[in-house]
Amino acid sequence: MSIFKKSEDKQQLATVDEFRQKIESAHMPSGVRQIAERELEIMGKMNPATAEYTISLTYIDYLVNLPWNKKTADNLDLARAQKILSERHYGLAGVKERILEHLAVKILVMNKKPRILVVDDEVIARDNISHILKKENYDVVTAVNGVDAVEKLEASVFDVVLTDLKMEGVDGIGVLEMARSKYPDIQVIMITAYAAVDSAIDAIKKGAFHYIAKPFRLDEVRLTVKQALEKKLSSVSAKGSVLCFAGPPGTGKTSLGKSIADALGRKFARVSLGGMKDEAEIRGHRRTYAGAMPGRIIEEIRRAESSNPVIMLDEADKIGGQDFKGDPESALLEVLDPEQNQSFVDHYLDVPFDLSNVMFIITANIADNIQGPLRDRMEVIEFSGYTEDEKVNIALLHIIPKQVREHGLSDCAPVFSPQAVSKIVNEHTREAGTRNLERQISTICRKIATEFVYHKDAVRLIDITPELIERYLGPRKFFIEVTDENNRVGVVTGLVWTESGGDIIFVEAAQMKGRRELILTGSLGTVMRESAQAALSYIRSNASSFGIQGDVLEDRDIHIHVPAGAIPKDGPSAGATIAASLISLFSGRPARRDVAVSGELTLSGRILPVGGIKEKILAARRAGVKTVVVPYRNKVDIDNLHKDVTAGIEVVLTDRIEEIVDKVLAKDRAGDPASGAGNGQGTLK
Length: 685
Ligand code: ADP
Fold this sequence. Notes:
Helices cover 44% and strands 16% of the residues.
């Protein structure tokens, strides 16, 4: 027993020693180091068989393995960044331009020769400091006293000020206050006689960066100025720099984020916020909990082994929800806000970690779903869905080569024809982005790889033609919805904007004997239900102008339904579509299925602008719509679209519901064979 005990003691001592050394070489800030050392001391006295010992050990291990001072050097070559973006990503011209502008500003800030103001009424000290700093290739200006310094600060901008504390007239504190009030990012270093260290500490409380006591060492001056400049740069480059990539899935947001990291030479990590149920996933659990862990941000930084990675925070519009524990918004603000994130405290670490060097990129499907102060911090860059041509090009240039590589087919790469890719896009996917397309191509590559393995002598060069697609992917899964069926009374095609891009809906209206009720089904939200009521009221009050006789509600119920019933739908933009379906119903004129309507309707019949125009038009194309009716006030959005998006589609701009009646409704009444009105199912009497 006693031999055991001794060997255990020895082992414990060795562990403590090992960790002491690790703490030594972990380059922690001094406060953190003290805490780690204290924890190690406590741990050294614990019984190694206890749970507390393991908790302590894991904690210290975590602290020493964090990249406190480890950073990758930024590659600030804009031409290289541009090359990476254009080689890896097809199209997205506007997005790439915004990103390069963002990087350009960063580069400009980082590459600027730093300007330093040295303030001292003692000639020798002033000359000495200025001499050292000039040798560091800084742009140095001197001021002979506080008054002179204030004048120089009024006249031009500096990055760092070194000022003597005791001066006649305006003293160091006066210079500090003036400098900080005019330029909040400026860093001020106090120079003080040894005896006056207390007042220097006061100055730090008032916002000074640090102090240097006279007589100073040259190294100390150099190092302190360098650190002050780093702080200034990180606070400037962090400002407003939270990019938010917003758009439907599969439009290249993640891959572009990864390219930004590669262009800058930084590590890349992703944290998904969607579906998070607990604030502790961001901020960590306190160590008192059994099995406590740090939050995902700190965990990713540790894994990246670098304190300045690019971290992508995915699905910021899906965070939270009613059963979320804690306040997700304030936790995220703490992570993203340059004022707060220099000393981000993860509950597990319980010591501040500087996140100001991390470049955060947020992604969301719809940026408008992010609210409040978080939204104000972000610079939103919109990603939108792709046209068929764009998808084919992305597949041929990027997705296919990648999938071929990943499936070990590089030596005998199948050659996809553009027609075959088009067939996959149109018949096997229905999406705004390219996720499913990538999945289908991956299926084909997997099947080809399997064939090669089974039939070693098979022909190795395969041309993927449209005919082969069915063999690999089976019969077509998606059909052109609007041409599948006949025009019907009371059924109007509408356009919606969802998280996964645009989509088409069919608003159906029917009437039957009843007691003047309006029945609404199809999981419609409040706003959509109100739109339906407004549409009905408008039509009733203007019945004669639509050729409708008598009171449409007399002895009748009206039923409006929007399939698919299980998917919740809301928003005002179906107002005009609902109105059109009611006019079709009451007038008996079938609605043209290949005309899609989107617009908010007012009680006076005006049509107001709607969001997501590009996504809606792309969805209309995918579904085979020929004419799109949108509010006149969306003209600017239409004008901004690339001509490929609207090619072959007639866009009708309108201000009033009356103007669209003849566009949307076929001329003849139901039952007339010329109208193609099918069975007139909308009129159930
Ligand atoms: P998101 O993050 O928006 O869901 P991803 O970045 O994951 O989209 O993109 C899905 C796939 O489509 C990836 O393989 C990506 O490389 C590819 N992709 C999407 N857009 C482009 C583009 N413009 N150029 C090249 N590849 C693209």
